[in-house]
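Give me the 3D structure for Fe2OG dioxygenase domain-containing protein.
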Amino acid sequence: GWDKETSQEEWQRVARELHEAFTDIGCAYLTNHGVPDDQVSRLLSSGMDFFSLDRNIKDQFAYNLETNSGFISGDREQIHDEELNEGFLVKTAEEELPDAEVPSFRSALISLIQSCKSLAIRVMAATALSLGREKEYFISMHRELGTEKGLTCLRVNHYPPVPDTVPQGITRFAAHSDFGTLTFLFQDDAGGLQVQDHDETWVDAVPLPGTVLVMVGDFLKFNSDG
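Predicted structure for Fe2OG dioxygenase domain-containing protein (226 residues):
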């Protein structure tokens, strides 16, 4: 991975590659990212344990607008039409979590949140370099990264089986952009995610084992002149 021991030449190489990918399509696959596969697997497994609970139990941890955390069902959070998904959103591992129902959930969150924070700092530094700025340029805007005062969140998504008859207008997750700076996506092997390039063509973002898909958010687009 790229850290304080990484050479300046390596930082510049990563910066160039990120700039090319972010400019062309708005996302990039990261390798040697420093996020252990087992941390991702643990959280996905814990998430599935939660989503397999009865709906009345999941609703006890329903999304709280004030804390921006909790269980979200697709029939409550609609970007456009009804969506076949559910999720659990957290800002920090100190939130109210289903500790009794899924004891492994909190520890899995703590580990992955810390790893993602470290990765985010490095990606922001490389992105700043790619724009001819100091490494701290974007980092200085995110001093509260990973805290309750910050805007960062982690979301575990679940896509239930598709029913035999699907009404028109139903989708897994409607087309959207994320308002933040960066989005890290950890995909399973099911696939289905698509991203839109500058020609407004939808391109499959196929799952690649061992990689993290990083996507440009609206805030980064605004603060880099597009």
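The chain is about 30% helix and 15% strand. Let me know if you want a second pass.
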